[in-house]
Amino acid sequence: MEVKAERVAKHCMPGQFLVVRCDENGERIPLTICDYNRESGTITIVFQVVGASTFDMSKLKEGDSFYDVAGPLGNKSELCSMTKEELSEKKIIFIAGGVGTAPVYPQAKWLFEQGIKSDVIIGAKTKDLVILEDEMKKVANVFVTTDDGSYGRTGMVTKCLEDLVNEGHSYNHCVAIGPMIMMKFVCFFYNYF
Fold first, then answer.
1. Three-point CA angle 114, 118, 123, nearest 5°
2. Average pLDDT value for residue range 131-135
3. If we measure between CA atoms, which residue out of 122, 115, 136 comes closest to residue 34?
4. Which among 24, 65, 71, 82 has most CB atoms closer than 10 A?
């Protein structure tokens, strides 16, 4: 969803988030700022319908508005604090599981704007749940894997990471965002190698 939020767009950095409410009595929902356009004053958010509040969000149409939007909140990605020289020494892999792809995209895009191309593994249960693939391909080397094999490589993101290492890729910096169990196994695998 693209949202007109000029002050947020002007000041946000990759890794930050915002909080939205659909109405006065609505739940406060924290959402990653997936993308931003400072010139048009817009930000992009990605959400999955999992309850009443996100269901209400899914019913919003062009021209509708949130009751309030607070942000940008949180810290920017640690990558944004590194110098170009420090970044050029990194061999970065992002591992994005499901909607975890949304916070990976602005970081990969920011790196690309700094002249650094990273590798990104996008993992999803099925082909229908793969998000931001086309956008990500413009800024990074993308490897898609689905649990059921319906698209891209077959298997979990850790299998894809293992395959990439066996194919000769090497990394010294890993950012994993997704379900807790996915991040646990990525940490185990990454520390093993």
1. 135
2. 97
3. 136
4. 71
Q: What is the pTM of this model?
A: 0.92
Q: How many CA atoms lie within 13 A of 141 on its CB side?
A: 9
d(Cα 86, Cα 82) in Å, to the nearest integer? 6
| pLDDT greater than 80 at residue 70 | yes
Are 66 and 54 in contact by the 8 Å Cβ rule? The answer is no
Find how far residue 81's CA is from the centre of its chain: 18
Question: Which ranges of 79-168 does DSSP label H, i.e. alpha helix?
Answer: 84-88, 101-113, 133-137, 157-166
Distance CA 178, CA 32 (A): 12
Question: DSSP character for 75?
Answer: P
d(CA 146, CA 96): 12
Question: CB–CB of 21/29 below 8 Å?
Answer: yes
Residue 193 has pLDDT above 70, yes or no: no
